[in-house]
Design goal:
five-stranded mixed sheet, 2 domains, four-stranded antiparallel sheet, Immunoglobulin-like, mainly beta
Length: 149
């Protein structure tokens, strides 16, 4: 299972051919199941052989909504006959996006409002704002001891 943030910019889709097989080519497609039907997010796309039995495709999906997706890999012989197939679960999570933004994006401590603000990827949109307090529970921007939503 591969956990992905919401709207990932790139996804490294990697497949390893089963032991004993030397496929001539490999493909991957990504889809979800909606009301019992497959909905493609990535049509069948050729993978690049990067080492021996390891195949890879660096995908720029644009946007994937929160949810579960399936990566379906096919390994083919020189005559385009199926040698083996494999699947992998891709899970797109809003929580991973929020965690990444809090860890890497802009944070501002305002001495006028005595608040700390975390920003989204655009560095403008507020995602979290917390009040700053000193060790006695009083508002403080200089001796911050704890934060409260």
């Amino acid at each position: 299972m591969l956990l992905l943030p919401l709207n990932p910019t790139t996804v490294n889709l990697t497949a390893v051919a089963p032991v004993g097989l030397s496929p001539a080519s490999a493909t991957v497609r990504v889809f979800s199941i909606v009301s019992g039907s497959e909905v493609n997010s990535l049509a069948a796309t050729a993978l690049v052989n990067v080492y021996d039995t390891v195949w890879r495709f660096l995908w720029s999906p644009g946007s994937l909504g929160v949810g579960n997706y399936i990566a379906y890999y096919r390994f083919l012989d020189g005559g385009s006959n199926l040698l083996a197939a494999a699947t992998d679960d891709l899970v797109v999570s809003y929580e991973l996006t929020l965690l990444r933004q809090v860890a890497t994006n802009r944070v501002k401590l305002s001495t006028s409002s005595i608040q700390q603000t975390w920003y989204a990827d655009d560095q403008v949109t507020t995602i979290i704002t917390k009040n700053c307090l000193d060790n006695n529970g009083n508002p403080s921007a200089t001796n911050v001891f704890e934060e409260h939503p």
